[in-house]
Amino acid sequence: MATSRKLIVEVVDARNLLPKDGHGSSSPYVVVDYHGQRKRTQTAIRDLNPTWNEALEFNVGKQQSQVFGDVLELDVYHDKNYGPTRRNNSLGRIRLSSSQFVKKGEEALIYFPLEKKYMLSWIQGDIGLKIYYADEVAPPQPPPSPPPPPPPQEKEAEPVPPPGNQPEKPPAEPSPPSENEKVPEEPPPDPAAPPEEPPPDPAAPSEELPAEAAQPVEEEANQVSSPPPPPPPPPQPQEAMKAMQREEEIEKMASSISKSIPEMKFSTINGPQPLRRHISVESFASDFSEAGSIERSNFDLVEKMHYLFVRVVKARGLPTNGNPIVNISVNNYRTRSKPARKTNFFDWDQTFAFSRDSPESSSILEVSILDPSDVADQNFTFLGGICFDVTEIPLRDPPDSPLAPQWYRLEGGGARYGDLMLATWVGTQADESFPDAWKTDTAGNPNARAKVYQSPKLWYLRVSVLEAQDVVPFTTSSKEISFQLKAQLGFQILKTKPSSSRSSNPSWNEDLIFVAAEPFVEHLVLTLETRNQKFPLGLAVVPLTSVERRVDDRKVASRWFSFESPEEKKRVYRGRAHLRICFDGGYHVMDETAHLCSDYRPTARQLWKPPVGTVELGIIGGKNLVPVKTVDGKGCTDAYCVAKYGPKWIRTRTVSDSLDPKWNEQYTFKVFDPCTVLTIGVFDSWEMCEIDGSKDATRPDFRIGKVRVRISTLAVGKVYRNTYPLLVLSPAGMKKMGEVEIAIRFVRVTPTLDLLHVYSQPLLPLMHHIKPMGMVQQDALRNTTVKIVAAHLSRSEPPLPREVVLYMLDVDSNTFSMRKVRVNYFRIINVIANLIDIVRWVDDTRTWKNPTATILVHALLIMLVWFPDLIVPTLAFYVFVIGAWNYRFRSRTLLPHFDPKLSLIETVDREELDEEFDTILSSRPPDAVRARYDKLRMIGAKVQTALGDLATQGERMQALVTWRDPRATGLFVGLCFLVAMILYLVPSKMVAMTFGFYYFRHPIFRDRMPSPALNFFRRLPALSDRIM
């Protein structure tokens, strides 16, 4: 039945509205405008926190994907009928894009802050809304009045012709079919029309076209849809009719294949003419420039790769009852189609793409039909074939329309009157037939084609366990019993802390957070246990489809869930639990580390902001790849690329047995935050071994290397094309596996100010700051998310292997490594190096190593002391000068990449690498584990000493005023009192000037001994003497 889409706007309530009636209150009502429709709510009389709970319906009239440009405007007004005001004063407004609306069932209550309608308005408050799309079944329309009975042939072509516009009956065809089974074998009168397309709706043209134009549509519908036969001609013998029809059919087939008929044109592309099989053809060099010019396509970041496309649709008139196959031979490539499906025709509908990168010795395309049903051992019976001159095949490049297949008469073999429908053209990888076509560089593996994946939509499921009642344990003793609630969602199992209680009403007040993926097919299983009993006390099942969704920190309604006996067949009441369950859509479910994340958007679509741009990625190819496996005694690599940005994953086709693969595929990703990272990985596929039936086909795909690109480092509109080394770290050390060439471009779709405004916004959504999670909990949830995403993508077709997903998401990035400890240490030293340089410069200045600089510093000190307003501008100008000076020394590399020197790969010890790649439960010999433990103890001793020294300095600071040393504390307190009295009496500028000149005094006035202040601080007591 027909459905109509509606937009439902539930106006729930508002908070903290501004009083506008002159008596400290307001009488608000809401007006909503959407797509030319306006509706309003009732008036809430004298209420600054009104509640409406009204649902307003709007007709969409278009598909959801076409209304993303529409805007919903909502205005809140004060009703002038209540109060002394003379007009409806504005209390605020909001404007929402249609891209933020969701389907019914995904809606959540969201409070939007009200904005100003006019520049000088004073607005405050929020309004709570639920906005979603709903599909309603349209009521059936009454049937129209029956028209006058038309002739049988016209009735089949036009079910409901308009009165008065019925076309005249077309003249009878020379040889109308007399039986239904003869219609499919009859060739169409116009070879330009593809017979495999469904017939157009005859009712629609009859209302728009005149009678003269409706007549060809009626004839086409009669020929394609095989209607009942027209009224029979004068009676003739049945065998004579069949013979006459067969002769006319053969004449039509011959005329459709003959060269004397004019060429049929489709979007300025002419179908190729077949060659006679008996002529001798010399070697030709194909020239693409003769076939036509290639138009610019969307694949502008990669190189054009020309392919010869052959689409085999179906055949008829073949003298076989089996399932024939099609053999195609061109450019030293030979392949066979799948067996035909036997219907009214022999159907294949399969497309083949042959590489045309370099001229070959042969320029003949041979298409043959073979019958494997009669002869065994791969000895096929030749039924017929067609030959084409490759240099005459037309060239097509989108946005050209697809080339329509045509019927060609088979020559040679046993199919004397057989025909084959096919289409052949020269195109590029931008052709819409390329992704699903059989390709020469993929060796025909169906799992080697390119694919775009989407990560599942993930939610945080928050289960707040409050209390339980009527829980009756199996023991009747009066001792305290520790109750524990276990919650399980799929493979995730979480337990509350034990709650000890003498009664049957334990309480917890604890939150359990799970990761759930749409669609919600699993149920939340709650089990009540005791620490002393092994079997559960009760069981409750909660379907996730009934759980409420929220996008903020508001409290959802709590519910009671009854426990039942898990063992007995009958339902036995075992108590109940008080829970608050909801989906938290305001969080971003992390599947990557925070500093390498590619998306920070929350789960709820209503909170998404419009994209700031798009990033276009062109994966060109690999160079000098290392053979990673051996097949038939020969080293080879079957490489493919995987890119991940946000929830979108892409996988290129797998190029078989090539150390310099060429992919030349281009993809586009939406960018919502420029401070994100795009990851590209190269892998070797073991699935290609499945063709040969190798036992290694089940091995995991081998990682060849990875590249990361931070979007914020890309200039707007600039194309970055570069070759990056593929580095892999293994227990044997770093190894270069080859190179990958990519091209990338960032395109801005928002104004520059909006793009710069993103830098002032928090990375993570608001819920991460309102209700933050601990680091341990975040790591556990991230590991769970990675498992869910890997399981989801491994079930796709073709599957994305689990090991590929884990490598792209950097699952092992948090494992312990002595190499990473040293790397982070040197990173800290590098960060504070500038601070150390400043300290050294100050020390050199105060010791008069450069007298000119010291004199200038004295002058600067005098200026800043007497004019303190210049301190902040001077510092800002100094930072500007440093940044402008460093601009000359900025990095000249196109895009930053993995740095082996920074990673200490070249100087790392083999033993440390072996420790880094060891599993959590070590699999190394006991002697190696003992040696590592001793080494770790030595490092721990140094860390212990450093922490002790830091704690000692802090305790000495505390000892200044805690009277641990009475004399030292008394001296310090008295000195502070004296300094305070001096500063009260002496101007601060004089004190600052005196201190500055004293600090920068000449070395002849200095003492080589430490200062008295430092000596006093070092004598203060610490708690280190009390440690055992």
> Which stretches are poorly predicted, pLDDT < 50 over at least 5 residues?
64-68, 152-269, 277-297
Q: What class do helices, strands and sheet pairing give?
A: alpha+beta
Name the shape in a single word. Answer: globular
* Overall average residue pLDDT: 79
Helical stretch tally: 18
In helices, the fraction of residues equals 10-25%
- Which range does the strand content fall in? 25-35%
The count of DSSP E runs of length 2 or more, i.e. the number of strands, is 43
The major β-sheet equals: 6 strands, mixed
Radius of gyration, in Å, reads 40 Å
Query: Gap between N and C termini, in Å?
Result: 84 Å
Structure description:
The chain has 1028 residues and is α+β, with helices and mostly antiparallel strands. The protein has 18 helices and 43 strands. The strands form 10 sheets. Strands 13, 16, 17, 20, 21 and 22 form a 6-stranded mixed beta sheet that branches. Helix 8 packs antiparallel against helix 9 and helix 12 runs antiparallel to helix 17. The chain is globular and about 120 Å long.
